[in-house]
Amino acid sequence: MAQPLKGVFQITNWDESPYHEGDDGSKLSHAKIKQSYSGEIEGTSETQYLMSYQSPTSAVFVGHETVTGKTASKSGSFVIQHNGTFENGVAKSTFQIILGSGRDGFIGIEGDGYFESTENGQSNYTLVIRR
Questions:
Q1: Is the pLDDT of residue 1 over 80?
Q2: Quick one: pLDDT band at residue 130, thresholds 50, 70, 90?
Q3: Which of 42, 50, 71, 121 has its CA 20 to 30 A from that of 19?
């Protein structure tokens, strides 16, 4: 049975570097992010995104995030793969746990989820664990 986990993550560090910039305000960048998780997942994560900005207020991004933490019944780490958008200050992503990435108590973990940013570097997340 699927087990949804909900909570908030807080960005604790954001380091973004452009590697290509267009004359029209478009750019490609690489972002390294650290976050803290609270709610039904307690822990931290490190994320690396590749971002494509079409304007200063519009982008798409892909990336990988290593989550290290615990739930009510497990602890360890796993990697999720993001596919998201940034539009007018709001970031959204759907993601899936990469099969085989679970370590310690998360060995064999499967699932997917999404997040949407709110304000002050926070986002609401939902992760549905299927195994």
A1: no
A2: confident
A3: 121
Confidence at residue 49, expressed as pLDDT on a 0 to 100 scale: 98
pTM: 0.93
How many other C-beta atoms are found inside a 10 Å radius of the C-beta of residue 57?
12
Instruction: Tell me which CATH code domain 3-129 carries.
Output: 2.40.350.10
Q: In this structure, are residues 37 and 25 in contact, taking their beta carbons and an 8 Å threshold?
A: no
DSSP states of 36-64 as a string?
EEEESSEEEEEEEEEEEEEETTEEEEEEE
Rounded to whole angstroms, how far apart are CA atoms 31 and 87?
A: 17
For residue 125, what pLDDT is reported? 97
Task: Count CB neighbours of 129 within 10 A.
Answer: 21
Over the chain, what is the mean pLDDT? 95
The encoded tokens of residue 76 equal 């360890």
Rounded Cα distance, 79 and 68, in Å:
9
